[in-house]
Design brief:
With 485 residues, the chain is of the alpha+beta class. The strands form four sheets. It has a four-stranded antiparallel sheet. It has a three-stranded antiparallel sheet with strand order 4-10-9, covered by helices on one side. Helices cover 38% and strands 8% of the residues. Strand 1 and strand 2 form a beta hairpin.
Amino acid sequence: MNQPSSHCHGWVDQLVHLSEVLEAEEEQNAQPHCQSSSWEFEGPNPPSPGGSWLDGRENINMDIATDSDPGWGLVDEFPGAARIFTDGRETFLNRFDLDTFSKERQTNLYYPFIKDLPISFRTGKKLRSIIELLPSGPKWWYCIMPTAKPTKSSVRLFFRDSVECLEMLFHNPLFHDKLDLVPFRVYRTAEHLVRIYSEWMTGDVAWDMQAARIGIMMNDPVGNLRLCYKPLACYIVNTPEACMLAGVRGKTSPVMTAMYKQFDFTLDQLQAINADPENLEQYFKAAQFYHLNGVNRPFWRDWPLSDPSKFFNPEVLHHWHKGSWDHDVKWSINIVGKKELDFRFSILQPVTGYRHFGEGISHLKKRYLIAVIAGAAPPRVVLAMHALVDFRYLGQAPELDDNDCNMLLASLSTFHDNKVHITKAGGRKGKKNIITNWYIPKLKLLQSVVPSIRGSGIPAQWTADITEHAHIVVIKNPACRSSNN
């Protein structure tokens, strides 16, 4: 009620635009494009919601974003995906016509909040009673968790049904032009020589999952009934959380059950533990032999088509940005020296739009690191660290093709060929002695970047920047301003 008018009006305008889309749908339904009795489409191929921004197809169901044309050459879509089985015609807006005040809202869009000026409520209790008449989202549930020891108050686990959350998102009218429903492969030319990867739908994982058969029916934003599946596409977490969810411990890879020294893997380690999970001490001791953390039933164990090597994709914020600070910058400080590195940063020419570190970066983050250490560090050290920087920057591109993937592999190979010079120059130091090994999980995980790009699309879409920012804005900042009760 007290939000900026521009935001409210923009939201209303989008709803009005959606009503135009629905009206166009009704006109098209006058000449049905599918046989509702047999669930078969007329013509050789089912209509696709891919949208004209890919290859100029007619879009008869839902629009796809048309903000930009990436200039892709050839698009191959998975045949038969995203079928419309029947016309369910249940939309988010239809729900408003099912409540008590649907007739009044035909002439007053804001009824019952505003009947006649002034507003129709005088108390917060009255406003809440009116709000509760609106269509609700997924409900919160809770269950009492048993504890081994008595507690002063019961331990409650609050949760929402994930399927209801998915239905709400898939049904939301504001997303009617933001959805990709058909997996597709994109190539530079008609010869299919160079493939392009961007969003998840362009990768091999989405394509291979089309063999799934058991799903649930959901209505899309314009009311079409579609058979939907719930694959675990990605789980965005940092490295320790990924290891915890994967069921491994220590410096073990979360994308394959192996210790950092060998990185061979087996898929049968969890089943090989010969101990009773109810006996925690005995089971945990047996799990340590396989470098597992003692979780005997990971949440993804019964999730069809789920695989940690596929849904734990490279996470740019923690794996790359934090990894560069934890290692690249510290190597530079050890080799060049803290004072020399800070001095070189302090004399850089300030550039508009970029932060200038007048006091150096030894206590902050890095920028221009390669240019700063050039001439002070051995050439092979600069070459190795330059290769890592190239890898991280190229890997964040909004679109990558097979040639880019080969460049990533070449950069990674250059680093490994020259990393020994970082050790020789004293870059790898512990608290007391020089470290001669390269048992660094974040570096080992770089081996999985190119397979992840080809399977699940670009790494930039899986970065935790968005979720970390939302956690600060939506949770931390309001909590600081409240009483925390």
